[in-house]
């Protein structure tokens, strides 16, 4: 009675680590993942599992064997050494072990043609893992930019994002432009080889990328997991991700 014939796709969500900063557990480390990511996958019909941060490459590859889709969550800045730069004075906290773990995760998943959805830091991590680079802070861009760290509720769109015609993302939204939330202080500088831009804000900041080979490897600079409740279009996005994972399940088994 406890076996399941369900073929709903299993989505691995990369986790982070937080340190308890009060009480009797002060200083203890905990696996950390925003509950919004979990809810977004469940409402779209996927089965979420949390992938804790581990070191062994072999073990990370075995984790990838278990999943039908990979979602990279937001968080720390990527260590700029991974794209050949020294730390700028406006770089924020980094976590090298997480960068290493997620780099193995995305490369292994891409090799197995497992769909990937990278959110915020997740987009940046994908770009760096495939050879691209980042502006360590948006002020490194010599230009008057829009507000990308919004002060309003994160379930509300803040700035406009124009979608590139003919991309997977444009097909999902079926719109020329959308409004997204925005909670980032970095952005893509050099785009990774094999990727194309699918979304930009009006000040020219890259807000989304996808792999050119039509495999579902998608990175978004905003946080759709905070918008799906209030926004039907965002639910379509998660549904499309789960559908891509589902297709793989059907073709595989
Ligand atoms: Mn933005």
Q: What is the overall shape?
A: globular
Order of helices and strands: EEEHEHEHEHEEHEEEEEH
Q: Could you state the oligomeric state of the chains shown? A: single chain
- Placed side by side, the strands forming the largest sheet appear as 4-1-5-6-13-12-11-8-9
What count of helical segments does DSSP give? Answer: 6
Bound molecules: manganese (II) ion
- Unreliable spans are none
Number of strands: 13
Question: What would you note in describing this structure?
Answer:
The structure is a single chain. With 253 residues, this protein is α/β, with parallel strands linked by helices. The chain has a single domain (10-252), classed as Class I glutamine amidotransferase (GATase) domain (Rossmann fold). Helix content is 28%, strand content 22%. It is built from six helices and 13 strands. The protein has a nine-stranded mixed beta sheet with strand order 4-1-5-6-13-12-11-8-9, with helices on both faces. It has a two-stranded antiparallel ribbon with strand order 2-3. A two-stranded antiparallel ribbon has the order 7-10. α3 (96-111) links the parallel β5 (69-72) and β6. α2 crosses α3 (96-111) and α3 crosses α4. The radius of gyration is 18 Å and the shape is globular. The chain starts with 9 loop residues before the first strand and ends with a helix. The mean pLDDT is 95. The site of manganese (II) ion has 8 residues, from loops.
């Amino acid at each position: 009675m406890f076996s399941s014939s369900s073929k709903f796709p299993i989505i691995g969500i990369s986790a982070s680590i937080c340190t308890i900063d009060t009480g009797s557990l002060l200083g203890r480390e905990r696996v950390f993942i925003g509950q919004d990511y979990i809810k977004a996958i469940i409402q779209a019909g996927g089965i979420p599992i949390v992938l804790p941060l581990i070191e062994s490459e072999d073990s990370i590859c075995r984790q990838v064997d278990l999943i039908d889709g990979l979602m990279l969550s937001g968080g720390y800045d990527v260590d700029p050494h991974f794209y050949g730069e020294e730390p700028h004075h406006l770089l924020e906290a980094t976590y090298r072990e997480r960068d290493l773990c997620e780099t193995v995760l995305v490369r292994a998943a891409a090799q197995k043609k497992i769909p990937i959805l990278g959110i915020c830091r997740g987009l940046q991590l994908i770009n760096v893992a495939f050879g691209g680079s980042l502006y360590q802070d948006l002020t490194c861009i010599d230009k008057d930019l829009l507000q990308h760290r919004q002060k309003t509720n994160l379930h509300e769109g803040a700035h406009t994002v124009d979608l590139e015609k003919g991309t997977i993302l444009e097909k999902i939204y079926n719109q020329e432009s959308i409004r997204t939330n925005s909670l980032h202080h970095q952005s893509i500088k050099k785009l990774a080889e094999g990727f194309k831009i699918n979304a930009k804000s009006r000040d020219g900041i890259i807000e989304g990328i996808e792999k050119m080979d039509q495999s579902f490897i998608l990175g978004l600079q905003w946080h759709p997991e905070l918008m799906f409740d209030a926004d039907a279009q965002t639910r379509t996005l998660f549904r499309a991700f789960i559908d891509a994972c589902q297709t793989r399940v059907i073709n595989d088994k």
